[in-house]
Amino acid sequence: MKYIFRISTILFISFQFNLVSAQKSFEYKFNEIKPEDFSIQAPVTDSGAEAIVLADVGSTEFEGNNNGYFTMIFKQHERILLKSRNAFEEATVKLTLYNYSASYEERLENLEASTYKLVNGKIEITKLEKSSVFKEKLGKFLVTYKFTLPNLSEGCIIDYHFEIKSPFNNNNIRGWNFQGKYPVLWSDYKVNIPPFFKYYTYTQGYLPFTIDTSGFNFKNYTIVAQGDALSSSSVYQLSGDAKWYRWAIKDIPAFKKESYLTTSSNYVSKVNFQLISIKYSDTYSKQILKDWVTTIDDLIKDEDFGLALSDNNGWLSADIKRITNGGTGLEAAKKLFAFVRENFTCDDHDAIYLSQPLKKTFQTRKGNVADINLLLTAILLHESFDVHPVLISTRDHGFPKETISRLNQFNYVITKLNLDSASYLLDASVPRLGFGNLPEECYNGNGRLVDKMPYVIPVSADSLIESKFTLLNLINEGKDGLKGSLTTNLGSFESLKLRDELSKKKTEEYTKDLQKGFSSEITASNIIIDSLKNYEDPIAIKMDLSMKFDEDIVYFSPLLNEAWKNNPFTSAERKYPVEMPYKINEMFTLYMEIPDGYKVDELPKSARVKLNEDEGMFQYLTGTNDGVVQVQVKLVLNKANFQPQDYATLREFFTYVVKKESEQIVFKKK
Fold it and tell me: CA 202, CA 328: separation in Å to the nearest integer?
């Protein structure tokens, strides 16, 4: 299903044509569909493309209305060639509109949609019936219109256009996406803004614009203010130089998600708008986009956020006393955090406002991420801790922009605790997450402190190190081969993933899977998982190993299952940055006595390579001493984020790591 919401997920457009030399005057025309359109190919289409967006053209205009203000009129016309049944989801369109009140109600108008099929050289047209458009209320203020174009088949073309009229209420112009799941031949968006409204426009993406231009045109606006029973209507004429913009891109490739990429919304080509101010005259103006101090101050005064924390919340007293049991300081903070984490269920990890009063959250034991972490904040405030909420944007929500004080950039709330010259970022909405830790999706640039001085809180992946240490000891047992132990200390995030896995399956099942992971010559036993319930500490996995030697030649992989088996970067080229969730520090150490009756026939050579001088390092050291084979392998990445120009060296680095860690020690009978 295709969703269109503030045009944030609209797919992209295309069509082959010759641009006239004067690009500013070029207008795409949705001409009558011809038989050759059904076999059209896009220059940027690969053989597996299941659809081609032939054209996607949109515009936003303002006009005066009869309610004393302005109306925004958004228009869109899209035409798509569906080459495969797998693309039929594009034929289901969902339009989401705001309906705040009778005076602010967005209206869907002039909707027309048709399916075109080529049958025996002739084009058959099936129009969408009005009865096939379904309206559904979503929540308190949202309404959706949903329709599916009729009579679909592989190779058909769908075409639809509509208008959305929005009473202007200091709101933003709809943004536009140029790039999406399928290749686009032509994508075009025009905006015309009255001179009274000042907008900040910002574009993003790696594709160059075919058209990127702006200018001014003189516009008249007629506004009618309705009178009441005692007065007649008033008519106002406003005029001035409106600012117009136009962006268009030709032959847009499909956006392909690459490994280690936060979200496509950070990189697809698009344009967005932010209303800055309104000015009708020197004596009448209004600032809409406020600074961060004012914006956060408004949030502090909001009944669905800060006001809930300013209350005394005395109803918490008895429970807090029982939970802390006389503890103070860090001990009490950890107990209160653990109480919320263990007893409350998060049903929505995408929210910055309360969905209900804090007392109801406490009683029902469930709520969204804001409900739970603001409750944690309220509990800590009740005990006079220095604590504040922090707004962040998760990795799948996109990077927040520090220069634009917009709260909708954020979708998650955590708690910052200052105690004894230390700071802790807390998230009680995630089960089995340790005190002072955050889930990896929270590390996505910078957060914003909710306080009178709302400074930036760094939550970058480059601030994290995921450390893992493994020690393998194997001792000669004569005819019985080798016996020893394997101990692995996991990193914080790998520990959390394992705790989540073991919450859904028995530990015995997991240990059996571990045993099956070794080769037939190696037997694992007495597997112990330490610190499984101690969420502040990383997990340690310990086991006994035994290995038989009974062949003339024995091949032994020294890293066992800890080696990198595959290069995570397989593409020959990369257009977008590499955004790993954390930096890496891995160490593997082997002490292995040479089995009786054998000698080392081949031993991997020692090697040491750097990644871009100081951005990473791989070290593989080997040697023998007094009948003992020693291997030490270390992998370090000193940064988590890499730019596209660094991709080739990063890929080459991991190619070397995978190849080197696959090398074996060869033992041969004497």
Answer: 49
